[in-house]
Amino acid sequence: MTTIISPKQFSPVEDAENIRKACQGWGTDEKAIISILGHRNLFQRKLVRLAFQEIYHQDLLQQLKCELSGNLERAISLWTLDPADRDAVLANETLQKSDPDYRVIIEIACIRSPEDLLAVKRAYKFRYKHSLEEDLASSTTADIRKLLVGVTSAYRYDGDEFDETVAQSEASTLHQEIHGKAFNNEEVIRILGTRSQAQLNATFNIYKDIYGHSITKGFPGGDYFSTLRTVIRCIRDPKKYFAKVLRLAINMEETNEDALSRVIVTRAEKDLKDIKELYLKRNNISVDEAVAREWSGDYKTFILALLGADQN
């Protein structure tokens, strides 16, 4: 959603110099930094970071962390990172918390492509000298551990083909295992952790045809089923899922800047336009308007820049 500077107009050296100037003097010029980084695509941001390193022998991210603070610093730092490295940081941060937000892990495991997930796991291992699965297993227990390690360890087929016979069989299996009296999550984890998105969506559709309701309807309470519901929603309809995360981040009594930044930053160069359209349809207000209403200052300016709705 960002306004991209064309190659003819773009100069990574000039951007690096202007960011450096914004960081000098009595106070940081946050608006200047936002006007640059908020309008550069992934490739351009990489070049700016390289130019900054070559000219000043300093990592741009370290400079930003020194000069910025709070939600703005976090959002700009995440935006400046490569996507795989960004996801590795997000995963590690949530696993370090006393009450981890497993949505972060599920989004990475179930919405990223198989190749992207592999890249995240490589970046995680390089940064933290542990595997993502190892740290995830250490931070979870029982059925939630089995489920999250299962979907995070997956390398799914990424094509559109699916087998209808398998979908019918596994729709029945999921119904028996989830809603049956003798609950056993092994088959649930096997199906959700190995099948492709296309195959699982075929299974979910057939499930609804057979039983007259979505697979998540009537789930028992508890943390495990809440986590299982999120896994299914991320696989079934990522855009709808993200639109709901945005709605909750914006409309809760206490706004959730971490969730807002995570969705906007990670989807801005992917499917944010579609998520915004779905948000508007479901909430009768645009994401841009909602953000402008609930936030202020430089953080709002940066988020609106990523949304493509800069306000002067």
Provide a concise account of the structure shown:
With 312 residues, the protein is mostly helical. It contains 19 helices and no strands. It folds into four domains: 12-68, Annexin V, domain 1 (Orthogonal Bundle), CATH 1.10.220.10; 83-155, Orthogonal Bundle (Annexin V, domain 1); 164-220 and 231-236, Orthogonal Bundle (Annexin V, domain 1), CATH 1.10.220.10; 239-311, Annexin V, domain 1.
List the helices and strands and how they pair.
Blueprint: H1 12-22, H2 30-37, H3 42-56, H4 60-67, H5 70-80, H6 83-96, H7 102-111, H8 114-128, H9 132-139, H10 142-152, H11 164-179, H12 185-194, H13 197-211, H14 223-236, H15 238-251, H16 257-267, H17 272-283, H18 287-294, H19 297-307
Helix pairs in contact: 1-2, 1-3, 2-19, 4-5, 5-16, 5-19, 6-7, 6-8, 6-9, 7-14, 9-10, 10-12, 10-14, 11-12, 11-13, 14-15, 15-16, 15-17, 18-19
> Over the alpha carbons, how many angstroms does the gyration radius reach?
21 Å
CATH classification, class level of the largest domain? Mainly Alpha
β-strand amount: under 5%
Give the total of domains: 4
CATH superfamily of the largest domain: Annexin
Runs in which pLDDT lies below 50 for 5 or more consecutive residues are none
Q: What is the end-to-end distance? A: 17 Å
What can be said about the biggest beta sheet? none
- The oligomeric state of the chains shown is single chain
Which fold name corresponds to the CATH topology of the largest domain?
Annexin V, domain 1
Order of helices and strands: HHHHHHHHHHHHHHHHHHH
Compute the number of helices.
19
Q: Give the proportion of residues in helices.
A: over 70%
Describe the global form: elongated
